TrEMBL record:
Family membership noted in the UniProt record: Belongs to the band 7/mec-2 family.
Band domain location: 150-304
Compartments reported by the entry: Membrane
GO cellular component annotations of the record: plasma membrane; side of membrane
InterPro entries: Band-7_stomatin-like (IPR043202), Band_7 (IPR001107), Band_7/SPFH_dom_sf (IPR036013), Stomatin_HflK_fam (IPR001972)
Protein name according to UniProt: Stomatin/prohibitin-family membrane protease subunit
Any one GO molecular-function label of the UniProt entry: peptidase activity
Organism: Proteus hauseri ATCC 700826
Amino acid sequence: MIKTTITVKQGQLALLKKKDEYIKVLTAGEHKFIDLKRQLSAEVFALNGGALESEKAEFLRQYYPQWVEEYGFDIVLSDEQIGLLYENGILKEILAPGTRRLYWRYAERSLEILSATALEVPATLLKKLQQPKLRNQVIKGSDGVLNVDVPAWHAGIIRIDGETQTLLAPGLKGYWRYQHKVEVEVVDMRLQTLDVSGQEILTKDKVTLRINLSANWRYSDVLLAYQQLSSPIEFLYKELQFALREAVGTRTLDELLENKSLIDSLVSEKVDQVTAGYGIEVASLGVKDIVLPGEMKTILAQVVEAEKSAQANVIRRREETSATRSLLNTAKVMENNPVALRLKELETVERIAERIDRISVYGGLDQVLNGLVQIKGAQE
């Protein structure tokens, strides 16, 4: 007699085959069979191994349903179900709706079924998904969950199938990606700065200026802004550009240089009108730099130099006229007042004495003063 012995170890399961057909399930132990024509063989599986090939699994479900029920761990999810596969109490995989898997029954393997109709992921599951990330591990199938972490002073804009839905408060949230296309954009609710730099604009009198503008802005109504605008920041940037070009292009260089705050007020007024009703608020804006072409700088420098020179000449003439008028008044006073004349003479002597080391006086002070007067008359 020809015998065949098949040994199945602990933690294994075998399918006994005769020719190419399964005839029996073999559990752990030693199994002996009479095999006259040597037609018996066994296909051995580890109970804690992976899922069976899909074709083999469907074959067993169709032709050996009693084996699947008794020895298998069969997962058949509908389009409205999500599966959480655990091993030894640890989440190993998130199964998408419509998943079909067949494992051999293993005591430490379990399945939790969730509804796919709910959009938001349960908070308990989010915590489980965060733990492997701390160990640089990834749970298989976790890409089916959109994790959103909204920092403080921010808000989350959630879009479902392209439609803006609601505003998310700061915190950690998760959404299923299976039934819908879910997108979340995190926006800063604080005051922000937007720079419009390097704008080359032609003035009314054909002078090219390079202008840098800076604006401080915030969202006044985030949902309103994102319901009406695909990109609020790009919209604001373009409107600042248009308003700046309109303010500069319709005025001459002299007008702009005479009133530097003119551009700020014109742009601010225009932007406030355009952004009204879009949930955007411009708190303040201003022109940082106005850069002139090289040759225009030279011309303006010459103009300023000529203006300042003319102003200096006017001031000089005014001072000379004032000095002459003062001398004339002094002369009139001394003409009618001998005492004032004598004081002026003493003042002159004092000035001379400051430059002379020693003075010898003969004949009294009157003689000296008379001599000075005669010297002065001779010089004139």
